[in-house]
C-alpha cells in the first residue's frame, strides 16, 4: 500500500487536508508531536470518513523516527505542515522557531532523500511577501520577512529552491496560504488555538460564544475602505482541496513551484465582524484600539496561477466561512477538550 505522509497532520489545516485526501482515495499517515494539537482531531476525521488514518507521534527533528516510519510504510509524497506559527511568540523564542521550522524541514528532507522520496508539498505563507507594494499579490512579488516566523518560512523556501537546483528530480510545491478560516461543515473538526487567539476569526468566535468580552479591532486608520485591515480569508476546506490538487500536480511535474492559495478577494476586519454577526445572528461586541505592531493595511492574492497549474480555485463564500466557524465554535466551545 502507498501512503501520503502528513507532518503536522493533527493540526488545523493538516486535519482538514487529511479528510479531503482520504475522500479523494489516498492513504494517509500523520506524523505529529502534538505540540499544538490533539489526537482527537484525527479520531474525528476517521469517524467522518470511516477510514483508518495511521497516526504516529514523533518530531520532524528526530531522523531516527522518520527512518522507522519510511522503513515500515511506503510513502510516495510528503505534505509538510509541521511547524510553529505564532508571530509574536517567534520574536520571543527565535531559536525555538528556527529549530522547529528550519532544522525540522532540513532533517525531514535529508531523510526523505535517503529513502528516495522526492515529492513535497510545503506549507508556506503570504507572510513571505512582507508588506507588498501592490495588490493583488502575484507569486513573482519580491519576498521579505519582518519577524522570525516569516524568516523561517522564507529560509525554507530558499533551502528547497537550492535543493531542487542541485537535484532536479525533486518535485516541490511551495503553497503560500493567505488567511485560513472556517471549519469542516460537520462542525466536528476546526481550529483549536491554545490560550488567547492571535488571529481574527478564532477571536471573533470566542467573543460570540462568550469566552471573551469583546474583540479589539487593531486600528481603523489604515488606507482601506473602512480604515480596518484587509485580508484574503480562505475557507480551510478550499485550502485542503488545494493540497489534493498540488499532490496530483507533483505526480506529473518535477521542479519547484510557488503557488498562492487565496481567493483573490479582500475583506476588512469590520466586514468579518458584520458577516459573522449577521449570518449567525449573534452579537460580536468590539472596540477600536491602536494598530498592532507589524500589521499591514491590505493583503490579498492574485490566485490565477493555482487555477492555471492546479485547476483549483477557492469556491466557498464569506457566508460559508463565518457559518462554519460558528458551527464548530458553538458545538465545541472548548475545542477538542
Ligand atoms: P497547527 O499548529 O494547527 O498545525 C501544525 C501541526 O504541526 C500541529 O499539529 C503541531 O503539533 C505540529 N508540529 C509542530 N512542530 C512539530 C514538530 N517539530 N514535529 C512534529 N509535529 C510538529 O497550524 P496550522 O494552522 O494547521 O498550520 C499548518 C502549517 O501551515 C504551518 O506550517 C503554518 O506555519 C502554515 N501556515 C498556517 C497559516 C494559518 O493561518 N493557519 C497561514 C500560513 C501558513
Ligand atoms: C497573521 C500572521 C501572518 C500569517 C497570517 C496568515 C501575525 C502578526 N501575522 O497575519 O504571519 O501569514 O496570519 O495566517 O500574526 N485583527 C484584529 N483583532 C484581533 C486579531 C486580528 O483587529 O484580535 C486584525 C488584524 O489587525 C488584521 C486582521 O484582523 O488586520 C487579520 O489578522 P490575523 O488573523 O492575525 O492575520 P494577519 O494579520 O493577516
Describe the fold and architecture.
By secondary structure, the chain is an alpha/beta fold. It has a domain at 2-182 and 234-263 and 302-315: Rossmann fold (3-Layer(aba) Sandwich), CATH 3.40.50. It is built from eleven helices and 14 strands. The strands form four sheets. It has a seven-stranded parallel sheet with strand order 3-2-1-4-5-6-11, with helices on both faces. A three-stranded mixed sheet has the order 12-9-14. Helix 7 runs parallel beside helix 9 and helix 9 packs across helix 11. The longest helix has 21 residues, at 94-114. It is globular, with a radius of gyration of 19 Å. The relative contact order is 0.15. Bound molecules: nicotinamide-adenine-dinucleotide and uridine-diphosphate-N-acetylglucosamine. Residues 87, 125-127, 149-150, 179, 198-200, 203, 215-218, 229, 231, 269, 292, 294-295 line the site of uridine-diphosphate-N-acetylglucosamine.
Features:
337 residues, alpha/beta, Rossmann fold, seven-stranded parallel sheet, 11 helices, 19% strand, binds nicotinamide-adenine-dinucleotide, binds uridine-diphosphate-N-acetylglucosamine
How do the strands line up in the largest sheet?
A: 3-2-1-4-5-6-11
Order of helices and strands: EHEHEHEHHEHEEHEEEHEEHEEHH
Low-confidence stretches: none
* CATH architectural designation of the domain at 2-182 and 234-263 and 302-315: 3-Layer(aba) Sandwich
Annotated CATH topology of the domain at 2-182 and 234-263 and 302-315 = Rossmann fold
The CATH top-level class label of the domain at 2-182 and 234-263 and 302-315: Alpha Beta
The proportion of strand residues reads: 15-25%
**Helix content range:** 40-55%
Based on secondary structure, the structural category is: alpha/beta
Distance between the termini: 34 Å
Small molecules bound in the structure, each named once? nicotinamide-adenine-dinucleotide, uridine-diphosphate-N-acetylglucosamine
* Total number of strands: 14
Shape field: globular
For the biggest sheet, the summary is: 7 strands, parallel
CATH superfamily of the domain at 2-182 and 234-263 and 302-315: NAD(P)-binding Rossmann-like Domain
Number of helices: 11
